[in-house]
Amino acid sequence: MLESRLAEMNLALPELGAAAGSFVGYKKSGNLLFISGQLPLKDGRPTLVGRLGEDVTLEQGYEAAQQCALNVLAQIKAAIDGRWDRVVQVVRLGGFVRCTPDFADAPKVVNGASDLFVSLFGAAGAHARAAVGVSSLPVNVAVEIEAVVEIIA
């Protein structure tokens, strides 16, 4: 079970909070599940604010991306009613890294999410991806991750 594997890694899925705007946490369309951008929140609070290349290290950014991925997984769990056998594959991740204009390691930061998905789902966790440096993210967090997942409808 996925949650057992997370526990072995000393990780856990967070409780879902309400969406902070005029959107939903996920949307199903056929066999695809679109997960809204998830911030590095734990217990409703940001785990990391700041900018890569300024006051946030690459390692901290990696961990924040991993926290975002845990929030993505919590959204997936809600969408599939906790039945992880319904996940066919992770199709795509989009990663947004709040950083200075000269910071060139956004892909290394987003690996925090990518590595977790591959660790949990194996080959089915390998995905297409974008990793983009941006000047601003909600509540000044350092990372945001969105996902598209194929499920058994």
TrEMBL record:
Q: Which residues form the Endoribonuclease L-PSP/chorismate mutase-like domain?
A: 3-142
Pfam name, any one: YjgF_endoribonc
InterPro entries reported for this sequence: Endoribo_LPSP/chorism_mut-like, RutC-like_sf
- The lineage's top-level taxon is Bacteria
State the protein's name.
Endoribonuclease L-PSP
Q: What is the lineage of its organism?
A: Bacteria, Pseudomonadati, Pseudomonadota, Betaproteobacteria, Burkholderiales
